[in-house]
Amino acid sequence: MAASGAKQRLTGAVKQVTKSNFAAALQQFKAHIDTADFVAVSCRKTGDCSTSSLRHPWRRILPIDTPEIAYLKAKLAAESYDILQFAICPFRLHGSKVLAFPYNFHLFPRDELNLCMPSYSFSCQTSFLTSMAQEGFDFNACIKNGISYISRVQESMVKGRNPYPKIQPVHSCSSLSVVDSVFTSRIKSRVEHWWKACKDSNSKDDGALVKSLRKLILGAILFIEDRFRFRFISLLLISSTVLPKDNMESVQSTPNYPAELWAPYLKKFKTISHISDDLVPLVVPDKSGDPMAIYVVLTSSEEDKKLFMSEIQNIEDEQNLKVRGFREVIDVISSSNKPIIGYNCLHDFTFIHSKLIAPLPSTLGEFMCSLRLAFTNIVDVNHLSKEISALRKAKNLIAALSYLKRQFFVPIDIELPAEDEDYNNKAHGHNVLRITHLFATLCALLKLFPDGQIPLGQNIKAIEDYSNIFYPICVNLQESDDEELDYTMDVKKVSTDNLMFLWGFGHLTFKELKHSLQQVHDVFMNDFELQFMDKTCAAVVFSRSESADILLEEIRSGKFYSDSLLKKIPGLKAAGYEAYTKVCKLGLWEADLADSLENVTSKSNDVLLEPSAKDAYEVYWRNELAIDMNDY
Amino acid sequence: MTNLTLVWARSQALTLRLLPSLPRFRHFSAAADSDGGGVAVKKVTRSNFEAALEDLRTRVRESDFVAVDIEMTGVTSAPWRDSFEFDRSDVRYLKLKDSAEKFAVVQFGVCPFRWEASQSSFVAHPHNFYVFPRKELPVHGPSSEFLCQTTSIDFLAKYQFDFNACIHEGISYLSREQEAEAFKFLSSEYLDGLANSFCNLEEHVDIPLVRTSDLLFSERMKIRFQEWRTAILRSSSKCCTYEGGADDNDTQFQTVFFKMRPAIKLNGFSSNQLKLIQLVLRKHFKDLVYIRVADENFSWQRRVVYVDSEEDKALLKKEVQEDLIRNADEKVRSAVGFRHVVDLLASEGKLIVGHNCLLDLAHIYCKFFGPLPSSMDKFVSALHEKFPHIIDTKHLLNSSQAIQYLMKNNSKSLSSAFYRLCHNVSSVSQNFTSNTYLRFEVQADESGSSCFKSGASHEAGYDAFMTGCVFAQACSHMGIKFDMHTASCDLIRNEKIKKYINILYPSWNSRTVIHLDTGIENPDSSYRHKYPVIIFSNIVLIWGFPSKFKPKDLKELICKVFGRDSVISVFYIDRTSALIQFSKKELVNDFLVSKDSLERNNDPVSVLHPLTKLLEGGNTCAADYDTYRDICATSASKILFAEQADSLGISWKTKVGTGSQDIQDASCNEKTTADNSLIKHASGMNKVLKSQSKHQPSCGDILDSLYVSKSLLGKAMRST
Fold first, then answer.
1. Between chains, do A586 and B669 touch, taking CB under 8 Å as contact?
2. What is the pLDDT, as a whole number, of residue A473?
3. Is B213 on the interface with A (CB under 8 A)?
4. Annotated Gene Ontology MF terms (chain A) (predicted)?
């Protein structure tokens, strides 16, 4: 099958996973991950920092941004927006043959635990929702049946807060106060009494009454009605909560102790296992994780005990899955150590990190370290595609793919699993197949695997050079609309030292500003370029390196704001790149850039105007930037 | 339009006949929820908006009052933005403003009620508008972004809110300001392009043709246009139309007619190529004009038009110009969308009825009129100008004795009030013959039309209907006679309800009401004083303290220092921030000063000071009540109050009042620059700690999570 053939079949080939088929899909997914060579990922979010926001155009990732600033902007987006679809495609690669198993998980950050998690609120960009709507996305299904999740850090914070019984590890407790030992022995005798009574009644009738009682109690607490088979013989509930009167058997011996009294006694439940081996203590925590009640379960035999223990374990696992939700999928990928293939990775992985691993750290370095702990090997196809120089201009996946199709003959045969009833016709999550396709094509073009075989092992030599380098897609400020096809996109590197920001020029247009600047100061007599960051602020790049220094020096001494300038452009202000960095670091995103710069510069003049030669950075005046994770 | 059937809301048989095909698509969990099963609510989306609007115009004009209700994507943008009893009225307004500015309106219920004397019943027309802030024009839209509160979205989903209808088919809107801006933008955009095409040759500087490909292209175009022109001229002299040659450029050069003139439709050229074409035309062809026209989908169409003469050229310019202006006008009018409904409500000056509607009104003002003013009194007076008569049924229920008696201490929620007061509408099974119950009819004038859905609570249209019913019923209980003989009832001027009109109450815990006509907020006797009076100047705000402190501990700690009776109350904003009310105003300053001096001195004695415990972690900040207001005024929405305080860029840790000890370091935003030696005073150490540990979960949490990943890794290694 040729590439085009594969494409036609894409419709319906992506398995759509929601809450209802999640558990089953997860098992299948694990198997596919195990056999895969690579895992492609792609997410659909409710918003992004790359799209044009009319109000704050400077919040997008721009070519003039240093990697640090690009990260801060991506972080802002990841913290405000949410993921609605997460497409993952484990695939195998044999030369031009790709065996792919695409999944598309529908997510919704539902607060399953009532703990304001995973997110209290999230932003939506109308344009994102509208374009999803045009693709026929079912928002009702997403909100109702989307899988929820919590991050690793969130999970460790709520650990033990879910009100389901657990098998408490029994600790021996050496020092008992008098009160404690009196209480313990009283409990012990009661449990013994109950245990004997059970044993006796057991021989007579394992009556329906006992069974139904058991069902009642456990059913009420576990919220698992039919699936849980009640194999064990008897159960004693020692609880501070008052149960219905008719649960005679279990409540008779319940001392009415307030909940907080239970904590010190928990450790002493060794006593119970001392009574008999067929008793299993179970602890039910309340919402804050403190124990609320203790069950004592009587099992009929050693096998029954084992069975019971494993059932409890299953419930716990099930609960954990419910709590972690989609996070389980990320854990599977993370632990598989398979190379992850993404497109525009900085965007996607800031989202993944903040939603599913931990809150985003404040610097790029920390982020990269933390990310590498979770995913050892990430390949940004966008970076890989830079190897083919013509692809540098491709602004998105589709453009890159169609370019390759036109220029090269690289037949890629994508083999997909057969459709079944779970697959519907909705064309969701196809981006991940495009990423797979692009990656396979690039591998073939760059002859990364000349013999067509992917070597086994964690580190695949061929892609090592390309992994963990992110190329954030950035937009050029000067491109006004899509309709204006850019034809002058040349690479131009500039040093941040030569970049300055101007604001306070009122409503001057581009031409007017450029014209009046030339009259304002000598430095503008030489060659310089201008870009608007938003309607209040412009970036200037000087071709001569000393121009910016002269200007900064004059601003510092106050000479800049003297007579001549104020006549031409009253209110004009300027600052170096440092001020911009500071605005981003402080997160003053809410305002126009001019206001934020004003805020930063007016507060501490000296620091900001120092020409900071030490951390001068090469940025692009209008091209892409790369972030190398290996640097960190 | 024919009024085919009048449906008695209480008569189920009729109702069912009207809505035969509607499945019962709602289920109700709570018994208090009234099932509006039989009430037909008109669903309005983009597709039927124009017609529904025209229909609504007459309905509103004829109505006696209009009930409104809205559903939005959330209420509080952060947990600490909830309404608290410790909120001063300015803080309360800031919270209201934040909510209205951040969240979107997704459903707007409008229900005009008219007293029909001949039927001796009220006739209601519930409308349920789906609203979505879609960007319809390439200018500042309603909002490019809005916030969703997860629990609110979940809540809407639980009550069967149709998100698909909202996002796919919701009606967009522009505020008045945006409308003017959009029109200005569109017309200037249009006319600029036009001026470009008709300008004279001399005025334009040629773009130098550097690239060979450009030169070749220009030359090719020149020849192409020449051919076309001669063909046109030749054919026109022969009085027959030009037959385009069937060459490969055919799809790019489509010969069409434009305003009765022969023209070429240019397709598939790059912007650079189009620029070159313009140059060529300007340079070589005086009688060919390049123009841009906008089509229905807002994309530009490029045409090259042949003109006979200079006069013809001027004529063409005028025609195109008129077209463009008309087009822009139409576009903007349709983009104004839902605001037409709000304008209608405002211009008709009818009595507007809402239930607990202050937030709704703030949304309406913010979305459809303009940015919310900076203070409550300004907002209230601006609102009063737009809507001169507003009545809040919640206030009515709370303050009218007669209704208090009927409600018998039941919850004042809308559905419960509806259930209590309007048995006859809410429950169809019982037969009420009593005259005290008013009758309501819901009119569905396009029977069988699919846009009528059976209403249900928490759907804006049905909630508006319930609000109106509750209001009318309450009026009747208060002794207003609706009878056969009054053609229309002038509720606005009715003495009995006059005292409830234009009075809103800001929050359940404010104990005050706001008079919309005067902008004055004052205490109201109908709201009982549950809490002791709060003296705001006695309050200290602290944040960033360790979350292990319980309110009890905090109080104990402070009482140890300032005396047993020093603290009146401690209120927790969230787990790391609190407001403490002292018994005396001096204590506020005492507290701040002693906290500050504790931070400055690192001597061993200060370690024994009880407050030191509170300062553990080095992030504890303290300030007065005004700082609380300032933090509430910031626009970010961090989950924790302490994080939000940071976004204000506060660098001091203790805001000591205007005393001699003015350490209030005005230079904000310093916490990240370590190299400013001036700021590096005693708390320098803490600052380092602060920048490391702030907002981040505790070290333990991170270690835990890393451990998880490690153990997973280990597992995988073992299994392979």
1. yes
2. 63
3. no
4. 3'-5'-RNA exonuclease activity; RNA binding
The domain total for chain B is 3
Percentage of chain A surpassing pLDDT 70?
A: 61
Q: Which residues of B touch A129 (CB under 8 A)?
A: 132, 167
- CB contact, 8 Å: B16 with chain A? no
**CB < 8 Å to A147, chain B:** none
Given this model, what pLDDT does residue A86 score? 94
Give the integer Cα–Cα distance in Å for A101 and A36: 9
**Tens of pLDDT along B302-322?**
888 888 888 888 888 888 888
Per residue in A395-424, pLDDT (tens digit) is: 778 888 888 888 888 788 888 876 655 555
Q: What domain range includes position B279?
A: 182-330
Residue B693: its pLDDT value, please?
Answer: 38
Residues B470 and B569 in one domain: no
How far is B75 from B72, CA to CA, in rounded Å?
A: 7
In chain B, which residues have their Cβ closer than 8 Å to the Cβ of A138? Answer: 164
3-state SS class at A11: coil
Residue B93 vs residues A426, B78, B88, B505, B604: alpha-carbon distances, Å? 45, 15, 9, 12, 46
CB spacing of A335 vs B637 below 8 angstroms:
no
User: What does pLDDT average to over chain A?
Assistant: 72
Whether the Cβ atoms of residue A151 and residue A327 lie closer than 8 Å to each other: yes
pLDDT of residue A162: 58
What b/e string do you get for B83-112 counting C-beta neighbours within 10 Å, with b at 16 or more? Answer: bbebbbbbbbbbbbbbbbbbbbbbbbbbbb
Say if residues B17 and B39 touch (Cβ distance below 8 Å): no
Examine the domain organization and report whether A465 and A331 are in the same domain.
yes
The domain of A276 spans 166-314
- The pairs formed by A517-526 with CB atoms below 8 angstroms and a separation of 24 or more are A517/A569, A519/A568, A520/A564, A520/A565, A520/A568, A520/A569, A520/A572, A521/A551, A521/A560, A521/A564, A521/A565, A523/A547, A523/A548, A523/A550, A523/A551
Percent of chain B with pLDDT over 90: 20
- In chain A, which stretches have pLDDT less than 50? 1-8, 170-173, 203-206, 209, 212, 215-272, 476-489, 606-614, 623-625, 629, 631-632
Between A111, A124, A585, which is nearest B148 by CB? A124
Q: How far is B644 from chain A (nearest CA, A)?
A: 12
A residues 368-397 near B, CB within 8 Å? Answer: 373-374
Average pLDDT over residues B488-498: 75
Whether residues B147 and A120 touch (CB distance < 8 A) is answered with no
A604·B669 Cβ contact <8 A:
yes
Question: What is the domain-level CATH number for residue B454?
Answer: 3.30.420.10
Number of domains in chain A: 3
Of A257, A281, A314, the last residue of a domain is A314
Residues A228 and A363 in one domain: no
pLDDT digit string, tens, across residues B499-510: 888 888 777 666
- A425 with A526, same domain: the answer is no
Q: Across the interface, do B271 and A122 touch by the CB < 8 Å criterion?
A: no
CA-closest candidate to residue A593, choices A608, A614, A573:
A573
A94 in helix, strand or coil?
strand
B605-639 pLDDT per residue, tens = 777 788 888 888 778 888 889 889 988 888 888 88
**Taking residues B468-493, what's their average pLDDT?**
77
The reply to whether A487 touches chain B by the CB within 8 Å rule is yes
- Tokens in use for A279? 């008793």
Look at residue A242 in the predicted model and tell me its pLDDT: 31
Distance CA A628, CA B365 (A): 48
Which residues from chain A sit within 8 angstroms of residue B101, using beta carbons?
A: none
B98-122: pLDDT as tens digits: 999 999 999 999 999 988 888 788 8
Do A374 and B636 count as a contact with CB atoms less than 8 A apart?
no
